[in-house]
Write the structure tokens for this entry.
Amino acid sequence: MSLRRRDRKGLARLLRYTSGGMDGKERNAYEKDLQKDPFEADAAEGFSMITAEEADKDIAFLRRRLMNKGSDRITIPLLRAASLAGVVLISVLMYETLKGDRKEMLLSDNNIPARELKPLPVAVTEGIKKAAPVHDIKEASEEKDDFDSEIDITTTVAEKAEEKEITEIAVAAETKRVASSEEQRLSNFRLMEEMKAKGMDKARASKQPAILEGTVISVDDGLPLPGASVVIKGTSKGAMTDINGHFTIDATTDSSLMLVASYIGMETMEMKVTPDTEMLIALNSNKVALDEVVVVGYGTSKRSDSEESYDYTPPLPSTGNEAFKDYLKQNQRYPDGTEATTRVVVVIVMKVGVDGTLSDITAVRSPSKPFTDEAIRLIKEGPGWNPARVNGVAREDKVRVRIVFNP
Amino acid sequence: MFLKVSRNKKKDLTDEALLQRFRETGDINDLGLLYSRYMHLVYGVCLKYFKEREESRDAVISIFEKLATEVNNHNINTFRSWLYVVARNYCLMSLRSRKSEGEKITTMVNDPLFFMENSEEMHPIDREEGLDDQRLNDCIEKLKEEQRECIRLFYYKDKCYLEISELLDMDEKKVKSYLQNGKRNLKICLEAKNVTEAQR
């Protein structure tokens, strides 16, 4: 993977700058370019922390890594799709097994009850959003002549998952169990094709099914999540998943309904109801949320009960107080028409939301409207705010900010 | 021979043409070639935020993996600036998630440059022919002393950050921050002038 000459030159110049190989004039010229290019300016700042040799070494290393990636036969989206196919396959199998159906059923081609023949729409959060539903994967694999047979895909899933440690969905363990016999694998795929074909017909034909069902799994390990809550958005109608992560909700459905699935320590996930289909909902783990759970004991704790455990921090500028004061000092301007001779104090009260958004910015003390406006401008254009925290949990709160204008 | 020719051609494609190719073919090599043009910049950005080599190297690879999926979800005008946003967001997000695991982020928070504006359009002072503009000079006059001095030394006397920091006896970081804030105030001042002129 060779670089264009100008990219090579750009890198050389950057490293010459950070390693101190330029004189003042040249530095200034480069710094002027950096002023126009925040990307390179950031990079220059980063590289100034390491030596030119270290930088060369690291870049060579990264280039090698990148080339290895590039030469993989399977492109990354396809790899993801393939691993997803694995998960879907597993869930089909798990579902069938859990339903108490006999194994022979899986192997038979025709005698499958119509109810079981549904496509599995898949909803997953963030990381694998792009992954296609089952039939798309099938098509994708047909386009790629790299795959000669269906068996190839399954083996690829198992091998790749092990080698590359794709963490979004770890299919390896289950896949091993499932993939013990080759015939079984073959028939599974045949089954999926069948399901695809018949399921789509069925979905088109049906109008108002009465039951919503599906399975909630964890993206991290592909295992079902028992006790997750699944609710129809905007209603109190819902269900908890059983020990196998399976849920059923009685409802007259139409496709405009949304399901909300949540589980402690996982990101909440919304998905559109797909009528008359088994839904597979995969939740991503949410490490942040888990950290924020603070166990105080039984009951709710009042401030008077446990004075010590009540830990309050007010809303603060995200830059820290000193930098914020500095910002105010640097950027304040006496409004037009006022004389910059006397010291002026404006006191602002505002609300800082849980996500740091500012609202209800009002001046409770100000000599005149222009100063109020200037103070509000300073706040609005200034750094972001961190919300107040009570025992580590973000809260909406009001805060007073004193802005001093010094001539 | 033929292979070599075609490869050379590919090498010289513009970013956007390469991106288009990747979208059409899904060939990860195309994206890899494109990424390799700016990989060192991405690595530098990661270093800036993580301040650590190993973590930054891992991040460069993760960002590439992210690109492979994200590229199809976005309408990208200029790949380079889009990549910058993706890289920076990646670093910030991973710092933020670390913060809630107990570590405090002090590094970026106290860095005044962290909030510098990255507007796409160029600042008037960065255009060389703009330096003699009378309105710009008026606005420079109105700046606070430190900001004015830094701007003068940097843009009119062609002094580098290091020299300015020695001349004015202040930290190099401070120099950058005065320049940044000075430029911001200049822009506000110039815009105000434009408005009043337009009203006339």
